[in-house]
Backbone:
């Protein structure tokens, strides 16, 4: 199935079949704000169309800033994608930046339990005033995978894009936490996995911290400007190839 996406990303028209849709789900690193570059900040989903032959595939960006793998489900955002999925569609899944937040507070209550196991925590959600069972990050990723497969769509799990954080001259990877857990969840769910964290970090390293900071980021270490979003979108296509 990813071979089809490679063909589409290369601009090679395959034999005519119903036009598939790529649905993007994630946080602000996939779609910042309304996706129109407010404040000069962009998510990579805004530029993914430049990497595909859009006469052959549609791209719909349902990502929303501030959401975690948990709240994208609990707020009903995933349901809005699920009802649209048809056989042969793709779901690109990238979460992790907000999953390390508190599990229960009066601000966002969006955190997930660490890891990929079956651990749970029962809470009375301070923010929503509802009783809730919170699962691990990996559990939520596996749910996206199984739900998409039930619709005969093709789930593709991405590790989260790297933050602009450096150590010993190199970008800090997520290979010991959310990047690792994303891979493990994809393997458990028998879904495709693309290590976007590593692909992008390997591009940042030779540029150096100063150039990355001044040319690809604006206000913080997480959200990219247009140039950064374009590099990240190119990295998504590179991962598919």
Residues:
């Amino acid at each position: 199935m990813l071979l089809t996406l490679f063909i589409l990303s290369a601009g090679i028209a395959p034999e005519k079949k119903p036009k598939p849709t790529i649905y993007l789900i994630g946080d602000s690193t996939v779609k910042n704000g309304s996706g129109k570059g407010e404040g000069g900040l962009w998510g990579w989903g805004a530029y993914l169309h430049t990497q595909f032959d859009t006469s052959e595939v549609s791209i719909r960006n349902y990502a929303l800033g501030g959401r975690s793998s948990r709240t994208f489900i609990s707020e009903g955002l995933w349901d809005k994608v699920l009802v649209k999925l048809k056989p042969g569609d793709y779901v690109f899944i990238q979460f992790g930046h907000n999953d390390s937040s508190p599990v229960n507070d009066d601000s966002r209550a969006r955190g997930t339990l660490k890891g990929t196991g079956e651990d749970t925590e029962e809470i009375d959600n301070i923010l929503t005033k509802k009783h809730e069972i919170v699962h691990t990050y990996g559990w939520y990723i596996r749910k996206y995978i199984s739900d998409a497969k039930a619709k005969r769509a093709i789930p593709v799990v991405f590790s989260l894009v790297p933050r602009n954080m450096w150590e010993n001259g190199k970008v800090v990877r997520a290979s010991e936490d959310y990047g690792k857990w994303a891979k493990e969840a994809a393997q458990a769910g028998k879904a495709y996995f693309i290590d976007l964290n590593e692909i992008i970090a390997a591009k940042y390293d030779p540029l150096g911290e100063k150039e990355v900071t001044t040319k690809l980021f604006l206000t913080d270490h997480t959200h990219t400007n247009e140039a950064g979003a374009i590099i990240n979108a190119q990295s998504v296509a590179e991962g598919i190839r």
Observations:
- Helices lie at 2-9, 71-74, 77-82, 137-150, 178-188, 196-207, 209-216, 226-240.
- The first helix runs from residue 2 to 9.
- The longest strand covers residues 21-26.
